[in-house]
Amino acid sequence: MGRFIVRRVISLIGVLIAITILVFALFQFLPHPELQLAGRFASPATLAHIRHQWGFDRPIYIRYVDTMKLIFTGKVISYDQQLNVDHELVQRLPATISLAVGAGIIWLSTGILFGLISAWRAGRWSDRALTVLSMIGVSMPVFFLGASLSYYIGDKLQFLPASDYVSIGSNPWEWLKHMIMPWFALSVLFIGVYSRVLRSTILDTINDDYVRTARAKGLSERQVMIRHVLRNSMIPIVSLFGLDFASVIGGGAILTESVFNLQGAGQFAATSVQQLDIPPVMVITIFGASAVVIIGALVDVVYAMLDPRIRL
Amino acid sequence: MTTSATGTELEAGAWTPDHAPGEELPPGIGPYRLALRRLRRNYVALAFGALFLVIVILCILAPVYSHIAHMGPNDENVDQATNAVGLPIGPTWKLSHFFLGADSVGRDVAVRLLYGGRNSLIVGALATLITIVLATVLGILAGYFRGPIDGLISRAFELIWAFPIYLLGIVLGLVLGLSGLDLGIVKIGGNSLLIPALIIGVITTPYVGKPIRGQVLGLREREFIDAARQQGLSHVQIMFSEILPNVTSTIIVFIPLVLANAILTEAGLSYLGAGVRPPNPSWGNMIGDGIHLLPAAVHTMLVPGIMLTLCVLGINVFGDGVRDALDPRAKIRIEH
Amino acid sequence: MSPLLEVDNLRVSFRTDEGVVQAVDGVSFTVEPGEVVAIVGESGSGKSVTAMTLMGLTRGVNAKFEGRAMFEGYDLVTLPDVDMRKVRGAGIAMVFQDPMSSLNPVQRIGKQIVEQIRTHDPEMSKAQALDRAIEMMERVGIPRPRDRARSFPHEFSGGMRQRVMIAMALSNSPKLLIADEPTTALDVTIQAQILDELRRLRETTDSGIILVTHDLGVVADIADRVVVMYAGRVVEQGTLDEIFYDPQHPYTWGLLGSITRVDSDRSERLPAIAGLPPSLLAPPEGCHFRPRCPHAFERCTEVPELTSRLSDAPQHLDRCWLEPERKRKLRQVGDRIGLASEEAEIS
């Protein structure tokens, strides 16, 4: 197990470095990168400053080091939006994390619940109904669902606020009211996927030989279900959740944040793109991808703990 | 030691029969013909597949409808298209005149819907093609040769997969959209549909490539590969004649999934401005435009949204049916 | 001595979408303490269904049972689930065909054996149960059992895994061990070792063994009595010698004839029984073997009774209308027993 972790960490570091190189390389493709970085209202003085700061007057490998230094020491500035990117990110992170964590809890628990019900009542009415619901959930683009919810429940019926974010620190009740629809919109897709994955895993596992052996040992049906069928069926769900959660944190929340105007990190990336403001996009991409990879590595470790077969 | 007979495995409990009661299965029926028979009896999947087909046909007929409605997708007719309050009119349900209403600059929503559908479907289909081809080639190469080739391809998969799809899509959409793609021999303009198709296609490749690689790794261990080598077949011949047929069913199962995902991703990217670029319509950017008009003129958002959902739903349900047909699971099996 | 197990006219049918399948159609046999009874047949014969029914593993909404299976005074066929569970894994234990898939891949071996022990003796502490599990592993010849108890199934070889299954099955000292094709998934040398284990079990305890197999070599090695099944019915049963040296049913002749022998002429084709077993949804009228039997005659459209047709061997039963005298002639194919077919021998 220890060796597995070490190997995973080494691989992780390699990928992190590769991410930085890739993002760096991508941005070299832009026409006149230093102009793009300086923003629309660049003065010659700013341009010169940027050229020096970002290493445009140096060979490319030094430019890489300079760029990384800027990013990781929090000195990247967006001239267009007049802010320090890293500071802005830190301010916006709570919204993104609220969205991701809240939605994550909701979709994991609901997905598992629906999956269990569907498997238990396989073939019957409730199973079919849940399958239909999950099909629809999986087919709807999240921003369309979000916008529809925001319009019908927020604007028309005025049950819940249609947009914006209130931090939990300032008013927990309002925070909750503002997060319910975004949580729902983001979760629907995953609930659909998870319930179907769990359902089919359970139905497959029930027919596995070792379940038959468990019965032959004299275990009660309930013990067979919990100790063998469910425990083994949960393993792929754990792995799936880790990856999905990572990708939501890393950027999947962009669409939901934009629709509900949550002013999170994802929305920051989206608006920067629309304004063609490069520095924030670069920084968020690197951090976002890194978050995905790190969480992914954690998930691998947890998965290896649950399923010893993959420790080879 | 054993007799020549092959066994028949009995399946107890409810289970989907391969053929009608009493009907004899002709000998030598291959797994694909069998799957087709099963699929034919799955009315729900067929109905949704038909739904998807209808939508595709409607989109193909976009120019025909444009003629009927007397409006092109980018024609603006603000006078006729606004109501007393200055808002775009809602559906008139008259085929020849703003059947589904107008948008904020006076364009015919129904006409744009069909043209937009074309773009969304083209991007989706192209992206799917790219993903399937790349994933198959890379997956088979990685699984077959293993060693350094596998190392390289797997690292590439991991790297691409690490990028949250929208971040990478936005970045690429931004960079390539601004500057186009100039590979010397091939030049693609920033406005081309190929750009988002390429982006989505490449990003989705690891999703299919990894399972194919896994399957090929498993096949590699089997003796029939050694037997083929021993017969003198070259690597390429083996990959084509022995490995490829075995991963085909996996590929078939993935196609609807990838297509649905590609269409949804294109919508998301277009909504963010990094996909199909205006004024070219796509369902994604139409929904985006509609959202910006909220809370007024809901139809501008609802129409493309519902159409997109129906289209993807059709693909998903049909795809599910295909998957079930290729790999049915009896509820209980008892071996004698 | 009263028998351990007495199966009396067991019939099992399953309702499927395409009709009712009579998987087991009137099986009767006994197992005495210390005896090995082999149930022989090909896939589809009903042998596994019979074995699993004795453990109650075939119960379900679509299954119907008739007949009795008396074990320690209880009828296994009608025993309520609550009581059946007490029997499973303790009074009667089962070893399955494929040890890799029959063990939970994500649980340690020791834990899986302990589970069986503690299910039937919840008072026992985990430590004690583990000791007992290790003792069992040692008995079946697993080296360094205390270390290996912490291993996972995929860390064992096939033969070792099967030994683990046997250890697990024996952990509660069952009176009856049912082994369903225990050696089919293993290669021949390991097969010999597993059979040795079973033989040792028979010698050191009073347990009875039911061995379900399609491999006559295994049968000849270890069985005391043999039950031959075909398409759900018993077609012949008797002692090992009776079956091998005086077989009374054409199907048995075919099985015996298809055994390759070291001393047979190399230019002979491997004999096989022509045709395929019938679909149990629409079985042939009368004797199930009739369509494949070269010796069938008009009477065969009537279901033959399972009875002894030999005055000097009242326990040797068969289901064939042919006269015993005719049988002795018909079963001689060349210099050995077999089922005559259209093909002449090429010499």
What does this structure look like?
- The complex is a heterotrimer of chains A (312), B (336) and C (347).
- Chain A is mostly helical.
- Chain A contains 13 helices and two strands.
- Chain A has helices at residues 2-28, 33-38, 44-53, 60-72, 85-120, 125-139, 142-156, 172-206, 209-216, 221-252, 254-260, 265-274, 278-306, and strands at 77-78, 83-84.
- A two-stranded antiparallel ribbon of chain A has the order 1-2.
- In chain A, a hairpin with a 4-residue loop joins strand 1 and strand 2 (83-84).
- In chain A, helix 5 (85-120) packs antiparallel against helix 10 (221-252), helix 8 (172-206) packs across helix 10 and helix 12 (265-274) runs antiparallel to helix 13 (278-306).
- Chain A is flat and about 80 Å long.
- Chain B has 336 residues and is mainly alpha-helical.
- Chain B has one domain: MetI-like (MetI-like fold, Orthogonal Bundle).
- Chain B contains twelve helices and four strands; from the N terminus they run βαααααααββαααααβ.
- Chain B has helices at residues 31-40, 43-60, 62-69, 78-81, 109-145, 147-162, 165-179, 194-220, 223-231, 235-272, 283-293, 299-326, and strands at residues 10-12, 181-182, 187-188, 332-334.
- In chain B, the strands form two sheets. A two-stranded antiparallel ribbon of chain B has the order 1-4. A two-stranded antiparallel sheet of chain B has the order 2-3.
- In chain B, helix 5 packs antiparallel against helix 6 (147-162).
- The longest helix of chain B is centred in the C-terminal third of the chain and has 38 residues, at 235-272.
- In chain B, 44% of the residues are buried.
- A seven-stranded mixed sheet of chain C has the order 6-7-8-3-9-10-11, with helices on both faces.
- The longest helix of chain C is centred in the middle third of the chain and has 17 residues, at 188-204.
- In chain C, helix 4 (109-120) packs across helix 5, helix 5 (126-139) packs across helix 7 and helix 7 packs parallel to helix 8.
- Chain C is built from twelve helices and 13 strands.
- Chain C is an alpha/beta fold and 347 residues long.
- In chain C, a hairpin with a 2-residue loop joins strand 4 and strand 5.
- Chains A and B meet through helix 1, helix 6, helix 7, helix 10 and helix 11 of A and helix 6, helix 7, helix 10, helix 11 and helix 12 of B.
